Amino acid sequence: MMKQIITFLLCGIVTAGCNKTKDDISGTSTIAGRIYIENTFDGQPARLLATQDIQVFNDTSINAGNFFLGGKSDKDGNFTFNYLYESRYYRLRAEKREAIRLDNNILFTANQLLQPAGDIKLVLRPDTSQQNAILVSCIDTLLLIPGKIPGDSIFLYTSRLLANLDSAAVSGAGASYKFTASSDGTAFKMNLPTDSLFINAAITIGGRRLKHKVTAVKLEKSGVKSAAIVMRL
Predict the structure, then answer these.
(1) Rounded to an integer, what distance in angstroms lies between the CA atom of residue 43 and that of residue 65?
(2) What is the predicted pLDDT for the residue at 41?
(3) Which residue, among 179, 173, 192, 233, has the nearest Cα to 209 in the 3D structure?
(4) DSSP β-bridge partners for residue 92
(5) Smallest Cα–Cα separation from 187: which of 25, 41, 39?
(6) How confident is the model at residue 188 (pLDDT cuts 50, 70, 90)?
(7) What's the DSSP call for residue 147?
(8) pLDDT for the residue 208
(9) Which of 66, 109, 129, 165 is the most exposed place for a label (fewest CB within 10 A)?
(10) For residue 53, what pLDDT band results from cuts at 50, 70 and 90?
(11) Strands (DSSP E) found in 5-77
């Protein structure tokens, strides 16, 4: 009974929370920092995450036996974990699902191995080891806009026949997915079918209609597939 009371009191002192699974509570070092989320494919700056769940694991493995501490960041994204050992390595783990531009339910994760220190920057990024993605770059060969073209309408078809039927007008008829290139001329889409997809794209610049007709892309269950498509009259 006395041991349970002592453990409860110690857990209450930890800034980020406490869910220890081991009796070893004699460490005197701290891991402290701030947690962020960053969409690396959309060019948006990282932002702080308030009340985000964070887990600390002993050693290098993520499993129930090595779980050591758990808690949340505060309203400003700060977190602190106490009772750690200066010479020991710990792994910080966090995950969150969030909508990004034109995409819903995207998995972001952070998985960082470190020793106790202050001013840690823990960043969640899209986890392409557990989900797939396509990154489309729209290129202008006529130099109406040198380099990549922002604002292209991009269409993905699950059938080559449907893509071919729409390749003259490139209106998006029959397309399963429709999205728009961002200001840097790229477009990013995640959690697509693990199969061949076919790309058409179009944009009107200065009264000229530029198109790209039928590029095939084969997606796996995970990883990023890049596709550079050339826009032509």
Answers:
(1) 38
(2) 76
(3) 233
(4) 56, 112
(5) 41
(6) confident
(7) S
(8) 87
(9) 129
(10) very high
(11) 29-37, 47-48, 53-58, 67-72
Going by C-alpha positions, the residue among 26, 77, 32, 25 that lies closest to residue 50 is 77
Stronger pLDDT, 55 or 100, i.e. the higher one = 55
Cα–Cα distance measured from residue 222 to residue 42, given in angstroms and rounded to the nearest whole number: 18
The three-state secondary structure class of 173 is coil
What gap in Å lies between CA 159 and CA 18, rounded to an integer? 52
Name, in order, each residue with C-beta under 8 angstroms of 74's C-beta and a sequence gap of 6 or more.
Answer: 15, 50, 51
CA–CA gap between residue 102 and residue 54 (Å, rounded): 27
The 10 Å Cβ neighbour count of residue 203 is: 23
For residues 91 and 112, the answer to whether their CB atoms sit within 8 Å is yes
SS3 at position 223: strand
For the chain, give the number of residues: 233
Contact predicate 156/176, CB 8 Å: yes
Asked if 131 and 223 count as a contact pair (C-beta separation under 8 A), the reply is no
Residue identified by tokens 């808690």 is 71
DSSP state of 175: -
- Residue 47: the pLDDT is 95
Is the model's pLDDT at 19 over the cut of 50?
no
| Average pLDDT of the residues in 141-154 | 76
CB 71 within 8 A of CB 47: no
